[in-house]
Every structure is written in structure tokens, then in C-alpha cells.
Amino acid sequence: MTTTAPPTTPGTAPRAGAPRRRARTADRGVNRAFRWTATGAGGLILAVLAAVAIFLVLRAWPAITAGGETLSEEVSWFPEGASLVSFVGPLIFGTLLAAALSLLLATPVAMGIALFISHYAPRRLASTLGYVVDLLAAIPSVVYGLWGSLVLPPIVVPVWSWLADTFGWFPLFAGPASPTGRVLLTVALVLAVMILPIITAVSREVFLQTPKLHEEAALALGATRWEMIRTAVIPFGRSGVISAAMLGLGRALGETMAVLMILSPGLLYSFKILQAGQQQTIAANIAADFPEANPLGVSALIATGLALFLITLLVNMGARAIVARRKDFSGAN
């Protein structure tokens, strides 16, 4: 004897499928809401960036359109007979030189510390050292400025004098070295200490993400600890180190108080980093001249800020292009 299933009305679904269909509909609503929220957050970042750019252009426009004679007559601290371009040029040069020197000093040290924490130090020492390095990022810029202007010069002046006497034939170390120590190399040293925790923290996390398969394979083939790091860890973390260096470079480009408190400023295209009164950075110049600036002077300072904004934007775009060209290893390779 056979039984037949009860007939179903066309266009109706079984009752058992109704809860599942409601769940799928709810999931689609949540996914749609999350997608629009994420899209809005990304659009908000672009909107803020565009708003900053528009603000800088509008506020800097009076100084951009004004001639050098007008700026010299109405702005007390503006160099006589100079144009806005000739005024901004040395500031851009000093900013890039100080940031490049600090990055050159900080990156090798930061990589060494990151490798020691991630692959050499015992776990307890590594956690303590990582915590101490992270604390350096919490120190205010004013404290670094006080340290660099009061404590550091007596220590570094003999070293700078030795550099000038020994390597004075090289343009960077041309003497005589300033007896005050308020020179660009001192600023670069302080900036290097300031960006050190940023580069170290990011590099450490990148090195820790190296696939264990790569490290064990290198050791199994007879490589020493250094050979394993050189052939597996550093190639894997190269793009991350570049990103970390660019983050530190952004901090060095925009640093204000430490540079203002240490450097004896000048408006020259000079590579003499051991002599005072040679260079100045954009951010420090804005902080120094803003209190006594009239409306046109404020516009000129904002024009220099616009130049710094463009420099930072170009540096980050270049860093992203470099990182995008690097292919990270995968643990499955």
C-alpha cells in the first residue's frame, strides 16, 4: 500500500523554510547597513581631506596673489625684496633635510630594536623592552624640546666639533661647528628619538607576522639565526618597514615645538648641518612668526602650511606606491 504526499498550493512555500528566509533577509539588511556605514566612513575621510585643502588654498590666496613688494611692506618679518616662492623654498629645503636626516638615523636603530624584541630577546625581556619603547611615543614634544635645548648640546658639541675637524671636507660636516649645539644635526637627532617608537612598534608587529614555515625551513636548511632573518624575516617585512618609516617621516615633517626650541634658524639653501643660522622648517617658522603676524602675514604662513600639506601628501602617495609594488610572502608558499 503506497501513500502520497498531500498536495501543495502553487506559489506557497513550506512552513519550515519561513524562518530561514527571514534570517537571510535580516542578514542582507545588516550587510547593506554595514556596507553603507563603511562607505560613509571612507567618504568622510576624503571629505575632511578636501575641506583642509580648500581651507588652506582660500586662506593662502591673498599671499599667493600679492607681490613680493606688498608682502615686504605689510609683513614685518617677511624678507625684504623676496617673493613668496623665494621665502617658502628654503623652508621646504630645511624641512626635507631635517626629516631625511632623522629618518636616516632612526630607521636602522628601530629595525635593530624590532628584530631584537621579535627574534632574540627572551619573552619577559621582550615585553618589558617593547613597553618601554612604546612609552617614548607618549612623551610630549615640549619635553623633547627641553631635553634637546638644555641637556643635549653640552654632550653633542664635542662630537660635532670632532666631525667638523675630521670630515670637514664633506659638505654636510663643513665647519666650524657651532659652540651652542643649536644646529640641524641636533634637531635631527632629537627627531630621530621622537620617531623611533613609531617605526619600532610597526616593524616589530610586521616581523612577528613572518610565517613560521619560512623561518623553520631556513633553519632546517642549516641557516644561522642571522641568515634566517636576512633571507626570510626582512624580505617578508620590507613593505611594513617602509610603511613604518613613512609614518615616522610624517611625524618628523610636521614637528614644531622641538625644532622651535632647539634650532637657531636661517633661511638658506645650506647643507651645513653643524653650523647655526642656516636652515629652518615650515612648522617651526609658522609657530615663531604667527604671534606677530597681521592678516596678510597669516596668509603667507598658511601658504607655507599649504606647501607642507602637499609635501606630506606626495610623500605618503609615494610610500603607498612603493608598498603596492611589493608582494608579501604567504605562509602557504
Number of strands: 0
Number of domains: 1
Radius of gyration: 28 Å
Q: For the record, give the distance between the C-alpha atoms at the N and C termini, rounded to a whole number.
A: 62 Å
Predict the CATH topology.
MetI-like fold
Which runs of at least 5 residues are low in confidence (pLDDT < 50)?
328-333
Element order: H for helix, E for strand:
HHHHHHHHHHH
Count helical runs: 11
The mean pLDDT is: 84
The CATH superfamily bears the name MetI-like
Topology (elements, then pairings):
Layout lengths: L17 H48 L2 H7 L9 H37 L2 H14 L4 H27 L16 H25 L3 H9 L4 H30 L2 H6 L19 H8 L5 H31 L8
Helix pairs in contact: 1-11, 3-4, 3-6, 3-8, 3-11, 4-6, 5-6, 6-8, 7-8, 8-11, 10-11
Structure description:
It is flat and about 75 Å long. It has helices at residues 18-65, 68-74, 84-120, 123-136, 141-167, 184-208, 212-220, 225-254, 257-262, 282-289, 295-325. The protein has one domain (45-325): MetI-like fold (Orthogonal Bundle). It is mostly helical and 333 residues long. The relative contact order is 0.14. Helix 3 (84-120) packs across helix 6 (184-208), helix 5 (141-167) crosses helix 6 (184-208) and helix 10 runs antiparallel to helix 11. It contains eleven helices and no strands.
Which terms summarize this structure?
single chain, 333 residues, mainly alpha, MetI-like fold, 0% strand, flat, disordered C terminus
